[in-house]
Amino acid sequence: MKFISNKPIIYIKFILAIVSAIVIMYFDTHHQNFFKMRSMFDRMTNPIYRIINVPYKIFDHIFNLCSTKLHLSNINQKLHTKILEISSDQLLFNQYKEENIRLRKLLHAPLKQDIKKIFATVISKNIDFYTSQIIIDKGTSDGIQCGQSVIDYQGIIGQVIASNKFTSRVLLICDFAHAIPLQNLRSNIRFIAFGNGYNHDLRIESLKDDVDLQVGDILVTSGIGGIFPEGYPVAIISSIIKKQDNVYQEVYAHPIANFSTLRFVLILKDNHHFIHENPPEIPKSVIQVEKKRFMELMQELK
């Protein structure tokens, strides 16, 4: 009987929780004061994030101290090898950069300006199937603003959605609330990819069956919208599913970045440099040159 009598109370608590959540979401969307309260709360919790990060730093320091001379020697050798590989690749990339400059002059297209970058450390992660966000140790005092794109050494990982004086919150591209304009590096086709949850491939908007896409195609930022600069790698097409009506196809792409191991990131400033108004038409001859160069690059990388 006691269990039965408590059921109405449970229902009332459940309804109150739902109503409270709706009210909070409304004020968060429509009232600036609520946004200030959330920023103040982020500032208050900032010391907690730093305290939580202390044990990891201590453990990392102890681990480095306990590393043997042989282990350090092996790491040093690997780093030297990596530097040589990167240096050799840089020579190749400089060659492509010069060719890209010539092609842009041919198209009468403006060169992309140098992008200022801010280095930041990830101090907290909130990554699961429903939410994919991280907190970094840079804020408005460092020049961070909402809307700035964030990358790691592999490519685009997300964008800043909230920032206070000392920390900022980054929405990852795998979050359900995120969408990013992309371009197929091989076929130059543009589309939008949507977050599909952590550890799940990005979902690309429904495309017609005759659109030129292949598994393994590299997807980069298209520059449309002005948030993300053009040409940064984002994902690789992992699967193409033909629908029963044979008119549309479902396309999924695996993010290049590894969100589970994020520790250091770069924030790209000056988003207004990324906006391209009325981009010029690309002549067919130039497209053929780009395709030929891309295939040569793929062969050399193999």
From TrEMBL:
<dbReference type="InterPro" id="IPR007221">
    <property type="entry name" value="MreC"/>
</dbReference>
<feature type="transmembrane region" description="Helical">
    <location>
        <begin position="9"/>
        <end position="27"/>
    </location>
</feature>
<comment type="function">
    <text>Involved in formation and maintenance of cell shape.</text>
</comment>
<dbReference type="Pfam" id="PF04085">
    <property type="entry name" value="MreC"/>
</dbReference>
<dbReference type="InterPro" id="IPR055342">
    <property type="entry name" value="MreC_beta-barrel_core"/>
</dbReference>
<protein>
    <recommendedName>
        <fullName>Cell shape-determining protein MreC</fullName>
    </recommendedName>
</protein>
<comment type="similarity">
    <text>Belongs to the MreC family.</text>
</comment>
<keyword id="KW-0812">Transmembrane</keyword>
<keyword id="KW-1133">Transmembrane helix</keyword>
<keyword id="KW-0133">Cell shape</keyword>
<dbReference type="GO" id="GO:0008360">
    <property type="term" value="P:regulation of cell shape"/>
</dbReference>
<dbReference type="GO" id="GO:0005886">
    <property type="term" value="C:plasma membrane"/>
</dbReference>
<dbReference type="InterPro" id="IPR042175">
    <property type="entry name" value="Cell/Rod_MreC_2"/>
</dbReference>
<feature type="domain" description="Rod shape-determining protein MreC beta-barrel core">
    <location>
        <begin position="122"/>
        <end position="269"/>
    </location>
</feature>
<dbReference type="InterPro" id="IPR042177">
    <property type="entry name" value="Cell/Rod_1"/>
</dbReference>
<keyword id="KW-0472">Membrane</keyword>
